[in-house]
Write a structure and sequence with these properties.
Helices cover 16% and strands 41% of the residues. It contains 1 helix and 5 strands. A hairpin with a 6-residue loop joins β4 and β5. It is elongated and about 45 Å long.
């Protein structure tokens, strides 16, 4: 994914309440931000209720520290009959140096569901 001219789906400052005792952000917090970011393009595509059903190939390259600005970039990679797969790349702007680094990446799979919470097609078939 080339993010040079892209706007992040989510941008947030890493705060102490989401860190461990040494000031490193918990991986679960980073994944939750990535899940939110992945949801943004998925909901625009599906226009239906979505649930996260899988997270694949989550890789933590570098730590995120309290005060870093976390930026998640997301784009739809694949659309199935009831599912959407979104690739997310996460970068930080370091608090002290303002250096920008890729810290995490992964894929998130969402399934569209109806009121009965069962999978429904993303694209309604209006030909019948």
């Amino acid at each position: 994914m080339n993010i040079t001219n892209k706007i992040p789906a989510i941008k947030v400052i890493a705060m102490p309440k989401d860190s461990n005792a040494d000031g490193d952000m918990f991986g679960g917090w980073i994944i939750s931000m990535m899940d939110l970011a992945a949801y943004m393009p998925a909901r625009k595509l599906a226009k239906k209720r979505l649930v996260t059903v899988a997270m694949d190939e989550i890789t933590f390259h570098k730590p995120v520290f309290v005060g870093d600005c976390l930026e998640c970039y997301a784009e739809v990679e694949k659309t199935g009959r009831t599912s959407v797969t979104v690739k997310v790349e996460t970068y930080v702007e370091r608090k002290d140096s303002l250096d920008r680094e890729k810290v995490t990446e992964g894929r998130f799979v969402f399934v569209a569901i109806g009121k009965d919470r069962k999978p429904v097609p993303i694209i309604n078939d209006t030909t019948t």
